[in-house]
Specification:
11 strands; D-Maltodextrin-Binding Protein, domain 2; DNA-binding transcription factor activity; two-stranded antiparallel sheet; LysR family transcriptional regulator; LysR-type_TF_proteobact-type; LysR_subst-bd; alpha/beta; seven-stranded mixed β-sheet; 2 domains
Length: 296
């Protein structure tokens, strides 16, 4: 007979989640309005209930153990669900007002965010959302945005960063281009093809070279600093470019090049200020983005 699943108290999970996100027991206790000894007891009770060690102390810092890291993602999902239930039950989401600024790349802003924005409008019709579509990294500390969708983790300790998932990408081109220039069957074949650059060609060459794809400036005869414009050039048959599989799947005008190749994998981080824990509107938008983007 299999053992019954472990049971635990949601308050203990909430204490663990706050400690993991804040990085210390004292900060987590302040955030939850608890004393540090109370919070510490709740985290210890969760460890006892689950029979695992969730944190280990490295100097003055708390570090998540492998078991803690695994539990963290599940706890965040529970936290998102609990926040949504509370807002829905109280009708508070309908009353949330103010502005939230989200920064993301032009491609993500144009092709991935609209379904999330439709859902947010239903949840909080009085909320105003501004999308800062930019391919450079906007500074959250300077309040250029409230929430950022990035492919790198920020180093500033005062920001909260959540790894949403690992995204994947392949090379894509329009069928008309491939019909005219042939379909490459290896990385070596790519050196004979035209590429569309997203930003500076030198940066794309530097990124692709370690993969064994050897290109030069001669391969890049067209490009744009605008990701949306560059992607449109690909769809119009000007050449090949790497693209997120989730974005490319929305468009029947493109065909995957080298379909058997291993995907290009890159992280997707959601980042915001510490006031995530005190602002209802930022919490609602952050959790909604996390839920939608994690589904890929």
């Amino acid at each position: 007979m299999s053992n019954p699943p472990k049971t635990f108290d949601w308050n203990h999970v909430r204490a663990f989640l706050a400690t993991a996100e804040q990085g210390s027991l004292s900060a987590a206790a302040r955030n939850l309005g608890l004393t540090q000894p109370t919070l510490s007891r709740q985290v210890a009770a969760l460890e006892q209930d689950l029979e695992v060690l969730l944190f280990e102390r490295i100097g003055r810092a708390l570090e998540l153990t492998p078991a803690g890291l695994e539990l963290l993602e599940h706890s965040r999902s529970m936290g998102t669900a609990a926040s949504g239930i509370a807002l829905t039950a109280s009708g508070q989401s309908q009353s949330i007002e103010g502005e939230v600024r989200i920064t993301a790349s032009e491609v993500y802003s144009a092709y991935l965010l609209p379904p999330v924005l439709h859902h947010l409008r239903q949840l909080a019709p009085k909320l105003r959302v501004e999308i800062v579509a930019a391919n450079d990294i906007r500074d959250l500390q300077r309040r250029e945005a409230d929430i950022a969708i990035r492919h790198i983790r920020p180093e500033q300790p005062e920001l909260i960063a959540r790894l949403i998932r690992n995204d994947s990408a392949h090379f894509y081109a329009a069928p008309c281009y491939l019909d005219a220039h042939g379909r490459p069957t290896s990385f070596a074949d790519l050196s004979a093809h035209d590429f569309v650059s997203f930003g500076e060609p030198d940066q794309m060459i530097e990124f692709l070279t370690p993969m064994g794809i050897h290109l030069s400036a001669d391969n890049f005869r067209l490009g744009s600093q605008s990701g949306v414009v560059a992607w449109e050039f690909v769809k119009q048959g000007f050449g090949i470019a790497p693209m997120s599989d989730q974005v490319a799947a929305q468009d029947p005008q493109v065909e995957r090049v080298l379909p058997e190749m291993e995907p290009i994998v890159f992280p997707l981080w959601l980042t915001t200020h510490r006031e995530l824990h005190t602002s209802r509107r930022i919490r609602l938008v952050f959790d909604t983005l996390a839920d939608f983007l994690s589904k890929g």
